[in-house]
TrEMBL record, chain A:
Transmembrane annotation, as ranges: none
Organism of origin: Hymenobacter roseosalivarius DSM 11622
Every Response regulatory domain range: 2-129
Official protein name in the record: Response regulator receiver protein
Keywords: Phosphoprotein
PROSITE patterns: RESPONSE_REGULATORY (PS50110)
Keyword Membrane: no
GO biological process: phosphorelay signal transduction system
Automatic annotation (TrEMBL), chain B:
InterPro entries in UniProt: HATPase_C_sf, HATPase_dom, His_kinase_dom, HisK_dim/P_dom, HisK_dim/P_sf, PAS, PAS-like_dom_sf, PAS_4
A single GO molecular function term of this UniProt record: phosphorelay sensor kinase activity
Name by which UniProt lists this protein: histidine kinase
Source organism of the structure: Hymenobacter roseosalivarius DSM 11622
Keyword set, alphabetical order: Kinase, Phosphoprotein, Transferase
CDD domains named among the record's database cross-references: HisKA, PAS
Enzymatic class: transferase
């Protein structure tokens, strides 16, 4: 399962990567962007021709573009992304408003609060299997 | 015991005349057609007209058109026998617009309303104070939100890393890397708390800032001296154009912090393609507002994208460079504590110019 992490904090990326690995998908390809601007550029470039990650973990509080800004920027690509990528918002914020806001984006399957742990990763994978039977 | 004698009519008349004339609130006596039949001194002073140019004129002559219908409506209610009270924001005559708390009281004779007294109290100061409190409450809420978020972020990392540490092989490279990240997260947590301390201590001192006449050239020179090594290392130049006799009544430490942070930013966000040039200027004095500018030819930022966030706490605009998003927030807090305001103009790859005006 190819996974993309968008998080401005290198510690966040390290942690998420290690936790995903610990849950035992050694074949996983995990890539990361510390810059949300570059992440948006990546999707714009990849959407028509290139391979796309199946799972995207998106941080909210980032410089220049927040996670919400990233989702807004991806709106025009939504139709192409919907059946190929599942987005999860992965944030340290506990604001209840985030979940409601996330529901406005069809790309987003849910909001997860940091830190990620085994149970959350299993639930995510279960959801992915369910929506995309191989 | 004989009943108390009533005071002579004359005394009563003097008493009520004094109440009418000397009250600081505006008082008018009107008929049903809204004609002014009597006006007190406060009203005459506000509209700057003698009494004979006010009496027998319609009150509408002194009101802006947008509030005239409201006054008509309320006057009619008062003529129906009701005491009415309302707020409005309007000029009267040629006065500046003010907030007014207005009461219209019907005068009854044999059960019939024969006239209406209007009493208008100027509540502008109160309204402004209230607005200030609302703004401060909003600031405080925003502050709490930001703080809670910025405390939660390193804390969540630390929780996850501690969990991870339990399953990594002690002594393995991953174990060590996890431990290093854990330490970094805890340090970040500590920094956020220290930042809060700094910010709160500035806010605390707002009202008791130890103001003295600080020579601006002095402070800037001190800042430049302290940063000279970094400036030299990157081959930069700092040009200072400040009249030697120009000083500002301020807390010296605040001024130092403002210039230090602005210059540090210019150094940190310089453009790699060209040598850094920073120009610091100050004008004003002799009753004029003091105007300070710090302009650089550095990497700048996208002002349209940054919007109102430039001076907000923990907002950052250079994802690939270190920085916590504290400097500009501190500068703004300092400038505001001096009663001034700060603005920025910037273009990507051209530089940034900060302008501070202190009245």
């Amino acid at each position: 399962m190819d996974t993309l992490i968008i998080d401005d904090n290198p510690t966040g990326i390290f942690l998420t990567t290690r936790l995903l690995r610990r849950e035992g998908q050694p074949a996983d390809v995990i890539t990361a962007f510390v810059s949300p601007v570059e992440a948006v550029a990546f999707f714009r470039q990849q959407v028509l021709t290139g391979p796309l990650p199946q799972l995207v973990l998106l941080d909210l509080n980032m410089p220049l573009l927040s996670g919400w800004d990233v989702l807004d920027a991806l709106k025009p690509l939504e139709a192409h992304l919907l059946d190929r990528c599942v987005f999860y918002v992965l944030t340290s914020s506990l604001a209840p408003a985030d979940a409601a806001r996330a529901r406005q984006y069809p790309l987003v399957a849910g909001v997860l609060h940091k830190p990620l742990d085994g149970a959350k990763i299993q639930a995510m994978h279960a959801r992915l299997q369910q929506t995309r039977p191989t | 015991m004989p009943p108390k004698a009533r005071p002579p009519i004359a005394t009563t008349e003097i008493r009520f005349r004094s109440l009418f004339d000397d009250t600081p609130e505006l008082i008018l006596y009107q008929n049903e057609k809204a004609t002014i039949l009597d006006a007190n001194r406060a009203f005459l002073a506000l509209v700057a007209e003698p009494k004979d140019r006010v009496v027998d004129r319609p009150y509408d002559d002194f009101l802006p058109p947008e509030v005239q219908p409201l006054f008509q409506e309320k006057l009619q209610e008062a003529f129906a026998g009701k005491t009415v009270r309302f707020d409005m924001y309007a000029a009267q005559g040629n006065s500046a617009p003010r907030h007014w708390d207005v009461v219209k009281v019907p005068l009854l004779e044999n059960g019939v309303v024969i006239g209406v007294h209007m009493i208008a109290r100027d509540i502008t100061d109160k309204m402004q104070a209230q607005q200030e409190i609302v703004t401060q409450n909003q600031d405080l809420q925003q502050f709490t939100y930001i703080v809670s978020h910025n405390l939660r972020a390193p804390l969540a990392s630390a929780l996850g890393l501690a969990d991870l540490l339990g399953t990594e092989e002690p002594g393995s490279p991953y174990f060590e890397e996890t431990r290093t990240h854990l330490q970094a997260s805890l340090h970040q947590l500590d920094r956020v708390l220290r930042d809060m301390n700094t910010i709160l201590s500035i806010r605390d001192q707002k009202s008791v800032a130890e103001a003295e006449a600080v020579p601006l050239a002095d402070v800037v020179q001190q800042v430049v001296q302290n940063l000279q090594e970094v400036v030299d290392q990157c081959g930069g130049t700092v040009r200072v154009a400040i009249p030697a006799d120009l000083s500002l009544r301020a807390n010296r430490a605040y001024l130092y912090s403002i210039f230090f942070n602005l210059l540090s930013n210019a150094l940190q966000y310089r453009a790699d393609e060209r040598p850094l040039v920073v120009t610091v200027t100050a004008t004003g004095g002799a009753g004029q507002p003091t105007r300070l500018t710090v302009a650089d030819n550095g990497s700048g930022f996208d002002q349209e994208q940054a919007g109102d966030d430039v001076f907000k706490l923990y907002k950052r605009f250079h994802p690939h460079r270190p920085g916590r998003g504290l400097g500009l927030y501190l500068i703004k807090t300092h400038v505001e504590s001096l009663g001034g305001h700060i603005a920025v103009y910037s273009r990507v790859d051209e530089g940034a110019r900060f302008t501070i005006v202190v009245p």
